[in-house]
Design a protein that fits this description.
The complex is a heterodimer of chains A (254) and B (193). Chain A has 254 residues and is mainly alpha-helical. Chain A contains 13 helices and 2 strands, in the order ααααααααββααααα. In chain A, strands 1-2 form a two-stranded antiparallel sheet. In chain B, helix 3 packs antiparallel against helix 6 and helix 6 crosses helix 7. Classes of the chains: A mainly alpha (254), B alpha+beta (193).
């Protein structure tokens, strides 16, 4: 029980830190922007393709990809479609509620990367959405306060400390990931009050149910994006692998 | 899971008008043009044909193909390359058309334009009730007009994603194999719509 108290002290200190640091954050300087500009064109268009992620487990990954594809098409998607009888705003609130609960993950990971202004913003979001947003059901911090959520996880924190993504991994039901990001997930589950509680009091079946529920809720708000990728890509596996690696690299850089 | 959302957006921004002076004006012209068709009262089929013919003009097809093929651009024969470009444009156009409905009702904020010599980067944000996503355009000036050759959605480059899959197919199956796959894909894509 010591952990929640420590966490609270940590949060409180961050609020203080935010006040001090928010003033210091200024927009990026011109030279930084120019470096960014030059590096965006630095690659030779006719050079060999630089793989951002290695994939020694491709055969296994493709197997899991196939499994996920079938699970998606024949189970998760139909359930999500039926679940759409629940009004959209309610489903959005479900998403907001769990996202708000996992807020400590974003606060701690921002702080670990010395992004104190971000940590402060996430702390503010947490307090505003938990109180005014009725326990996190409404993201009022974003809608009214114009403080949008900024995703930070331990995978990104590791990236910040120059840990590479490691081999590409596709997790059953969860989807694209990497060795680095999987270890990140494990750490993050210790920072999320709900998963922390679950790990002590819930059975494996309960946890699977919770994850499945979250996935269904997410898919119910999604517009067939996976179907579209599958329809348009020559090899959806390769396309998604590249997109995942780039997406994570961009996340780390932010 | 958010990656799906990103991928969905990868095809938002393909077309680009030639003529305007600044990269931003150019991109704005193209987006306004597409949105005007999208928000009109015509049937989905009419909208498709209206957007369809114009898409190719907007793109720097050669720059785009070069960057997609990478080292294989130099390895291909002129016939292979021109056949590849024709197929590639069709695939991009189909992808765009199959998804274009998702973008009706949204607006685009223009955030920042950076120009240096014949290259430009334009940062925008697509805002709708469903999404709120940063979209970055890369443009190159050719024959006095700005042409779009890449689109990055939340840091994911369209060209780069295509390149890594196409290069792997090229490596294993060569130009013949790649183009056979592309042709099959096109048949399949046209069946859907």
């Amino acid at each position: 029980m010591r952990l929640p108290i420590l966490l609270l002290i940590f949060l409180a200190s961050l609020v203080f830190v935010e006040v001090t640091f928010a003033k210091q954050t200024s927009p990026s300087s011109g030279s930084a922007l120019n470096d960014d500009f030059d590096s965006a064109f630095a690659d030779d268009p006719l050079s060999a393709d630089v793989q951002l992620i290695s994939d020694p487990l491709e055969r296994l990954n493709r197997g899991v990809f196939w499994f996920n594809d079938k699970m998606y098409l024949y189970f998760l998607k139909p359930v999500a479609r039926a679940y759409r009888v629940v009004p959209r705003p309610v489903r959005k609130s479900v998403r907001n509620f769990f996202s708000n609960l996992s807020n400590p993950v974003r606060i701690v990971n921002s702080a670990l990367q010395f992004k104190f202004a971000d940590a402060g913003r996430e702390t503010t979001r947490f307090f505003v959405n938990t109180t005014v947003g009725l326990g996190g059901l409404f993201d009022v911090a974003d809608r009214w306060g114009k403080i949008p959520k900024k995703e930070e996880d331990f995978g990104q924190t590791l990236g910040f400390y120059h840990v590479g993504q490691g081999p590409y991994l596709i997790l059953p039901l969860f989807g694209a990931s990497s060795v680095r990001d999987v270890s990140g997930l494990a750490i993050d589950s210790l920072l999320d009050p709900l998963t922390l509680y679950m790990s002590r009091h819930w059975s494996l079946l309960d946890k699977a149910g919770y994850r499945g529920g979250l996935a269904v809720n997410y898919l119910s708000l999604d517009d067939d994006s996976y179907e579209k990728i599958k329809r348009d890509a020559l090899d959806p596996y390769l396309f998604m692998r590249s997109a995942y690696a780039q997406y994570r690299v961009a996340k780390v850089a932010k | 899971m958010r990656i799906l959302c990103v991928l969905l957006f990868m095809t938002l921004a393909l077309p680009g008008y030639a003529m305007a002076t600044s990269p931003q004006e150019q991109v704005k012209k193209m987006i306004d043009g597409v949105f005007a068709v999208l928000n009109s009262d015509q049937s989905a089929e009419v909208k498709r044909t209206e957007i369809s013919g114009t898409v190719q003009k907007f793109l720097g097809v050669e720059s785009l193909s070069q960057r997609t093929l990478g080292v294989y651009w130099k390895k291909g024969t002129p016939e292979e390359l021109s056949r590849f470009m024709a197929l590639y444009v069709k695939i991009l156009e189909r992808t765009y058309l199959n998804r274009v409905d998702d973008y009706s009702g949204g607006t685009v904020d223009y955030i920042q334009e950076r120009v240096k010599d014949d290259k430009a980067i334009l940062d925008t944000k697509f805002v709708s009730s469903k999404f709120d996503i940063p979209v970055q355009y890369k443009l190159v000036q050719k024959d006095g007009t700005w042409q779009i050759y890449d689109v990055l959605i939340e840091g994911v480059s369209l060209v780069r994603s295509y390149r890594s899959s196409y290069n792997e197919i090229l490596r294993k199956e060569g130009f013949g194999g790649l183009m056979k796959k592309m042709e099959e894909k096109l048949v399949q894509m046209e069946k859907v719509s």
